[in-house]
Amino acid sequence: MRFNTVPARPERSSHNTLARTAHRLTSDETAMNQATADFATFASHAQIIPIGECEVDLGGRALRRGREALELGSRAFDVLATIAQAAGRLVSKSELMEAVWPNTVVEENNIHVQLSAIRKALGADRELIVTVPGRGYQLAVSRRDATSARVPAPQREAEAMPGLTQLAHDALIGREAAITEIRALMDSTRVLTLVGAGGIGKTSLAREVAHRLATEQALEVRVVELAEHCTRAAVIRAFARCCGLQFDERDGPDVRRLAQTLAAMPGLLLIDNAEHVSAHVAEIVGSISRAVHSQVRMLVTSRFRLRVSFEVVYRVGPLALPDADSDAQTTLYSAAVRLFLRRLFSNGQHVDMNGERLSVVREICRRLEGVPLALELAASRAAVLGLEGIRQGLDEPLLYLGSGYRTAQPRHQNLRSTLDWSFDILNNREQTVFRRLCIFDRPFSRVAACQIAGDAVLSSTAVMDCVSELVDKSLVEMRFDRAELQYALSAPARAFGREKLLAAGEIRVIAERHALYVGGQLLAPPTGATALDRRPLARAAQPLPAMGV
């Protein structure tokens, strides 16, 4: 896709050009993605679905018996197509209304009128369109299925499989490479877990992949949303609802039966927000993945891996950032800046994006380190604080980026709730090591981590065990400086950890320890120096008294 170029060093008179380019960069991708999705959706619908001796031609919008075209109105065809495409899955009344009358308020009786027309057209095959009292409608594969489907309605309604509208979201920016990599991995694995810090964009990325698979490959997608579930029973029920499976309350949930049912259902199972119930999710996902003839692929989002058979982990990173000295054109093309500007403009902020303001935006994006949630929250606060106010407030990001979207999940409405949620799933030792490591402003080594976080209780081995868990839980990132392994924390995580350090009464001691260590490193003598010359290093390395774990 081509965009008009922008002068590398714009003069003040060129700010209108910058503004137009910024708007175009944040809107053209949406239009392009929508056009692609629309074409893929049309292509996936060009298929024939048999119903007894009849067939539904979705592409030609026709119902036929042999070569004979059967008379059916447009609205009735939409109802039939929706039920037929569900391929035996129960279609609830609400789902049917949403699919056929998406922007219209109609009486439920309209469904009955259209079903009567459908059954009349189907003739002898009319019984293959089954009404399940109190629940909805489904297509029976055979007359035997149609007979067995006529059972008393259970107390709980099976949750309808989310349609494409439920997977829809704003077009993603800067994630095409990740989407390509994820889709390639999914071709060769049963379980793919997207792992990353809170607010990094795992859910959006997973839903975009699922949406593309559904539209381009006509793949049936079932979504298990776990954010609000905390117990094993609730997790099992969430999985059961996505496939319409009912359990006898007296016998309780049967994980083996659930796994066998899901394993036999071709398509994609999208399991979202699994970290807080990872043990329960792992039990179910592990059972499904071990099934000999499993036909389902599973895409999981979590802040850490499940550790089950056949699992492949994909780490979701932040958006690409411009360099500190990038020119205007390069800055505008960076993913982090484009996301920030899109949210800024969508909030009604008509800012003349001249070179000076673009420089401020670049600094904001760099200081927030490309974390999508942080960028969106910062852009949403610009109406109150302005761009310069946002930049100045980034010294206290948890205070200035404290409000988000009412429609977001509670733990994603602001940075503090996101980090609180991650912190709460750590054990006491991991919490202690995390808050102490937040004293670092820059990447640090294994030795540095042990010197700062260790004490009489936390040995170097214990500290590194905790660091390993923090990496696994996406609170600490591993980086390589040539061959040397280093660790780092995001700016919001550091600010959050320092609040915890202050609350624990450790801030002064850890700051002194950090100063001693850094001073020792800076004063490190050349090889061959005497023992006396090494005293600063020895003092920095000396363990301090335990501060409680």
TrEMBL record:
GO terms for molecular function: ATP hydrolysis activity; DNA binding. InterPro entries: AAA_22, HTH_77, OmpR/PhoB-type_DNA-bd, P-loop_NTPase, Sig_transdc_resp-reg_C-effctor, WH-like_DNA-bd_sf. Residues 46-141 form the OmpR/PhoB-type domain. This is Transcriptional regulator. The keyword Transport does not apply. It holds the Pfam family Trans_reg_C. One of its GO terms (biological process) is regulation of DNA-templated transcription. The lineage of its organism: Bacteria, Pseudomonadati, Pseudomonadota, Betaproteobacteria, Burkholderiales. Residues 46-141 bind DNA. It comes from Paraburkholderia pallida. Keywords: DNA-binding.
